[in-house]
Amino acid sequence: MDFAYNDEQKEIIKVVRDLVEKEIKPYALEMDETEALREGLLDKLAAQGLLGVAIPEEFGGSGLDAVTIAAIYEELGKGCAGTATTVAANALASYPVIIAGNHGLKKRYFDIINNDHLAAFALTEPGTGSDAGSVSTQARKTEDGGGYLLNGTKCFITNGALAEVFVVFANTRKGGGIRGLTAFIVRKGTPGFTIGKAENKMGIRASNTTELIFQDCFVPVANRLGREGQGFRIAMNTLDAARPFVGAVSVGIAEAAFRACSEYAKVRVQFDKPIASFQMVQAMIADMAMKIEGARLLVQRACWMKDEGLDFSREAAIAKCNASDVAMQVTVDAVQVMGGYGYMKEYPVEKYMRDAKIMQIYEGTNQIQRLVIANKTLY
Ligand code: COS
């Protein structure tokens, strides 16, 4: 068992950390307020290959292992979870193609991302959240059999207005249900495909979240991922792969909040002493440290299991659920340690607290994660 990053991983982490310190952290609040990435930031992220971390090398990506990807996302999470979400959505939208795309589709899809474009994963609908099998977007085969007409609305889609390509889940069976779920690749600008309203969110505000609307949108058979009815399994395998990365971003948020409130506690003087010298504050700091260390190890273990080709579905759910709960607890406590100042936008911890909340919700609520963990533990 080796707990250390290798030299290559250390070098990658250093490059990302420098980028975060210089280009992301100083502008995190500004991006939170303008609800957009700073001009030019996406190009800088793309120039470091961060949009294609999950894409295999043979298709022009960096083909990084999950442990390294998680380390990258933790660094991004320390700087701005909205930016991390924008970038991580590309990995989320890469997995269905890695899992089920044929060679030609992979080449076409990944060439677009490698050309510095964002991608999006579109499963959720107004009536479809935790019950992922209940997708009501329809994919009706055209009479000549050459393709499908997509009709329906997706919501809460990260990168909706920014992405060039989308993985869209629709139902090819009349009655709907899990067995009809099918995944398609749809390019921005395809007739019948429009971007709906952008959401005004509590946190991760630098990331873009929109509706997607499909009205008789023609998608050729060649853009179908796998077979009809394979969509649910593709979605589940994708979420398994991506959930540890939500855990990694959560660890980043928690670490940033922990550091901010620790530094503050050392200089904030009350009753003639730095508040860090008071045992009640020390207990909070110690609890935060334990939770963060544990969360990081669980994220790394889930990623390591994936890299080793082991069954990691349960560990992915554990990693995501635990780390996001930790991020919520730690950020709430960080605000508490900083008192009134923690509540103000002058300090970064209120943003960390808002950002942490979505980690418990997206890519499967923590209730669903507990369900997965319990089922995989009991049966
Ligand atoms: N990997 C592979 N296959 C899986 C799987 C996984 N992780 N989870 C379920 N399956 C398979 C099952 O084996 C089953 O296959 P068979 O019918 O061939 O036996 C099938 O999928 C249905 O499984 P199940 O009955 O458990 O499905 P449910 O409808 O009960 O849903 C949950 C399972 C709740 C786990 C699933 O709907 C889920 O993950 N929901 C959350 C969705 C989500 O994360 N949304 C976030 C939005 S996307 S960012």
From TrEMBL:
Belongs to the acyl-CoA dehydrogenase family. PANTHER family: ACYL-COA DEHYDROGENASE (PTHR43884), ISOVALERYL-COA DEHYDROGENASE, MITOCHONDRIAL-RELATED (PTHR43884:SF12). The keyword Oxidoreductase applies. Coiled coil: none annotated. Its cofactor is FAD. SUPFAM superfamilies: Acyl-CoA dehydrogenase C-terminal domain-like (SSF47203), Acyl-CoA dehydrogenase NM domain-like (SSF56645). Residues 120-217 form the Acyl-CoA oxidase/dehydrogenase middle domain. Keywords: FAD, Flavoprotein, Oxidoreductase. Signal peptide: none annotated. GO terms for molecular function: acyl-CoA dehydrogenase activity; flavin adenine dinucleotide binding. It holds the Pfam family Acyl-CoA_dh_1. Residues 6-110 form the Acyl-CoA dehydrogenase/oxidase N-terminal domain. Residues 229-376 form the Acyl-CoA dehydrogenase/oxidase C-terminal domain. It comes from the Bacteria. This is Putative acyl-CoA dehydrogenase.
